[in-house]
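User: Hi! I'm working on a homework problem where we have to compare a predicted structure to a textbook description. Could you give me the structure for the chain below?
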Amino acid sequence: MADDVSMFSRMELDILLLNIEAAVRITRRTEFFSWVQGVFQGVIAHEVLICGLALPGTNGLKFEWLGSYPLAAERFTELCSMDRGLMYRAIKLWHERGGTPLLLSPQRNDVHHGEDVEMLDLLQRWDLKNLVAHGLPGLDGRPAGFFALCKVHAAPAEREARLIAMLLPYLYAGWLRVNCDTTPDVRQREVGPLLTAREIEILSWMQKGKSNAEIGQILSISQLTVKNHVQKILRKLGAHNRTQAVAKGITLSITRGGIGHLA
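Assistant: Happy to help. Predicted structure tokens:
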């Protein structure tokens, strides 16, 4: 850590500290937006931030556009398409380069690879110009979070790579809190489609430590039917066992806290 810190100037360290202090206090979406449009601009000045987050039970990442100007929903869907969309092309390139910060700009003189040229063409087509992107590796092979700073005011170099690497954990933690910090009604709308009403009911009984046979008796359904529901719950929540499923259910506010004994 000391070696990492020694790479920054005194001014850069002051800016980093200011951003870290702001980031750890973020609990709301408006606070996150104020941060990235405020003191974060002193780290890497940019006009657009695209945030990607891996959600349980889903393929790919959920992306959101945070910028100084809006983008039409259909255009953003195209931008984040898994079929050769800009964001997934950036993630692929980031993976291929060992998960190091991705720096792209028509002004850089080290653009020799075909992938870079294609990405620069995409950036030009979207009028996003310079790009700094970085992600946090996940356990399932995809990034747990991926962030792309676009329309960066100056051609990114090693300075930007060091700074984004240092602040990435705070970007991810802040964005994760923002997406978990919703009112119960909003939370229910967001996670409702993830599990059916019957699956939520069964997960609640799992939380109370009931076995498949006991749940079947309570709900007047067969033990096999309960087992099938449990398997679907595990798959949708990305859980390996009942304990993990219960914990994720509480974290996502699908069920209430207070874990009983799990069989």
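For your comparison, note the following. DSSP finds twelve helices and five strands in the chain. The chain has two domains: 2-180, 184-251. Good luck with the assignment!
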